[in-house]
């Protein structure tokens, strides 16, 4: 099996390689200049084997794939009631950057959309941290999920912050409802730093593998978060991870997943493996076009569907 997996992955990549459908994310200038042809897939099993094919060591910014991991860190740091009080768990059925706040309370509908993720960012780490300490907590937490020290791409961060009008508007709405209690600009700055952490497809496979393994990194054997936290995170990934394509994904692929605008996509199959793909062109929902095709292929070939 071990020698067959890389060949299988290389074959599947070759089958989707000619598909150039979709567009690069245009609203972050630094992302719009990415190489659109990069393509990779990696698997990390719960017993710590990592397999990959294509550009598995290509570095790119994690973007929204950070959201389930930041949610896990916030749940660990603050406990469930404090986080659930501020962010719901219902699918919004809307795009990732819609405001999607509950009427009355102003609570973001879930932690996978930007409104929820900006709020979750503000909840990670200690209550009222020193400047920079929250971002450090999140970068070190993401690093524990990946099993190596990760760092922020400062150029990407500056590029996104210069064009963050929509996220700033969302953060000001959250502040007006008392969901955020700090300066909205500072929270968005930290959230964008979180999104600008550099990862490779190999890292994302190990991060997803840590979720599949109940919160223990299968390569380093470090317990990163409790199993109860992972259960919550996987449930929210299953219902909300693919935004307004969540229903299509559930029926056609059927595993908890999360996408990002830089072209990363992860899926976690509890007790078995973490999967990551990378291809920067996005479909109309903001999900990696070839990434979705790869996952459809994996689920068909290996019977992964669990939802
Ligand atoms: O906040 C944003 O818009 C980006 N930093 C992340 C969005 C994202 O990755 C959405 N996923 N498809």
From TrEMBL:
GO terms for biological process: glutamate biosynthetic process; L-glutamine catabolic process. Substrate binds at residues 64, 114, 160, 167, 191, 243, 261. Keywords: Acetylation, Hydrolase. It catalyses: L-glutamine + H2O = L-glutamate + NH4(+). One of its GO terms (molecular function) is glutaminase activity. Signal peptide: none annotated. Its EC number is 3.5.1.2. Homotetramer. Belongs to the glutaminase family. This is Glutaminase. It comes from Microbacterium lushaniae. The gene is glsA.
């Amino acid at each position: 099996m071990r020698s067959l997996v890389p060949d299988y992955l290389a074959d599947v990549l070759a089958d989707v390689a000619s598909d150039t459908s979709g567009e690069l994310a245009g609203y972050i200038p630094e992302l719009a200049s990415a190489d659109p042809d990069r393509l990779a897939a990696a698997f990390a099993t719960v017993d710590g084997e990592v397999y990959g094919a294509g550009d598995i060591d290509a570095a790119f910014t994690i973007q929204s794939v950070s959201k389930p991991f930041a949610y896990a860190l916030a749940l660990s740091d603050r406990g469930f009631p404090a986080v659930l009080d501020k962010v719901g768990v219902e699918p919004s059925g809307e795009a990732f950057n819609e405001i999607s706040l509950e009427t009355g309370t102003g609570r973001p509908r879930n932690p996978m959309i930007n409104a929820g993720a900006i709020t979750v960012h503000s909840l990670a780490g200690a209550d009222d941290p020193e400047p920079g300490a929250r971002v450090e907590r999140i970068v070190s937490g993401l690093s524990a999920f990946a099993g190596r020290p990760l760092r922020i791409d400062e150029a990407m961060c500056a590029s996104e912050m210069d064009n963050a009008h929509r996220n700033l508007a969302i953060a000001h709405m959250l502040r007006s409802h008392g969901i955020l209690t700090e300066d909205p600009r500072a929270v968005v700055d930290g959230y964008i730093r979180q999104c600008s952490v550099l990862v490779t497809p190999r890292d994302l496979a190990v991060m997803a593998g840590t979720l599949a393994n109940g919160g223990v990194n299968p390569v380093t054997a470090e317990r990163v978060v409790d199993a109860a936290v992972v259960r919550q995170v996987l449930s929210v990934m299953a219902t909300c991870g693919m935004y307004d394509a969540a229903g299509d994904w559930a029926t056609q692929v059927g595993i908890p997943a999360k996408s990002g605008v830089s072209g990363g996509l992860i899926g976690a199959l509890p007790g078995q493996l973490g999967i990551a793909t990378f291809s920067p062109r996005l479909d109309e929902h903001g999900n990696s076009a070839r990434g979705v095709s790869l996952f459809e292929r994996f689920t068909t070939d290996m019977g992964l569907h669990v939802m």
